[in-house]
Design brief:
Strand order of the largest sheet: 2-1-3-4-5-6
Strand content: 5-15%
Order of helices and strands: EHEHEHEHEHEHHHHHH
CATH topology of the largest domain: Rossmann fold
Number of strands: 6
CATH superfamily of the largest domain: Response regulator
């Protein structure tokens, strides 16, 4: 995070509906360690505000006046790569989800999330995690794994992912996955459980669990979904 006080997460809310914006601010500021430092009602003002205040986390709606949230996210992440952006929206179409992730969003939440749940997401994303609403996580992982993401959407938010896995893993010294680990992670992205992965690869369950532990350590993530998303966004498969 960018704030010198590591116990406080500084947040900018970007939401064009005033009552929703007020409710978000009131709910978040009741949570210790979270502070809303600015609010915006359109995408262009959001970009300028974020550049000025350099928050730790931005909560961004998609449908905004003047500049939509996806374009604003792309500009913010290009200028301030350490600032994390969470899409907080009622939109859940595949096109919007993948466009947001392609723009560099670090999280995607639906607006029916509770304040307590949102606070946990903010903390997790501020610490470097990727978070997807459980209702859409499997759709995203399966689409990336099968190569059926909408045209023009790339998972790493920039150029298309490299096709040569070995080259990519050598470049990323801290994420150098073995061929077997990549194979396991592909199956995770397809929604298979550890037991089903073990059955398909003809491995013992404990062996698969060991592979998963090594994968999460190498990718510095805390769960299976985050591991699969990070691997796909970095072009590891």
């Amino acid at each position: 995070m960018q704030n010198s006080n590591e116990s406080t997460i500084r947040i900018v809310i970007v939401e064009d509906h005033e009552f929703t914006r007020m409710g978000l601010k009131m709910g978040l500021e009741q949570i210790p360690g979270l502070v809303v430092i600015a609010e915006c009602e359109d995408g262009r003002n959001a970009y300028n505000t974020v550049i000025e205040h350099k928050p730790d986390v931005v909560l961004m709606d998609i449908e905004l006046p003047r500049m939509n949230g996806i374009d604003a996210t792309r500009k913010i992440r290009a200028e301030l790569p350490d600032t994390r952006v969470i899409m907080l929206t009622s939109h859940s179409s595949d096109q919007e989800i993948f466009a947001a992730l392609g723009a560099g969003a670090n999280g995607y939440c639906l607006k029916n999330i509770s304040s307590a749940q949102l606070a946990n997401v903010v903390r997790s994303v501020a610490e470097g995690a990727v978070w997807l609403d459980p209702g859409i996580a499997n759709r995203v992982l399966c689409a990336y794994a099968s190569g059926t993401t909408p045209a023009g959407v790339v998972p790493n938010g920039g150029s298309p992912a490299p096709t040569n896995i070995r080259t990519r893993t050598k470049e990323k010294g801290n994420t150098r996955l073995s061929p077997r680990e990549i194979e396991v992670l592909r199956l995770v992205a397809q929604g298979l459980s550890n037991q089903k992965i073990a059955d398909q690869l003809e491995l013992g369950l404990e062996t698969v669990k060991t592979h998963m532990r090594h994968i999460m350590e190498k990718l510095t993530v805390s769960d299976r979904t985050e591991a699969a998303v990070k691997a796909m966004r970095e072009g590891l498969f």
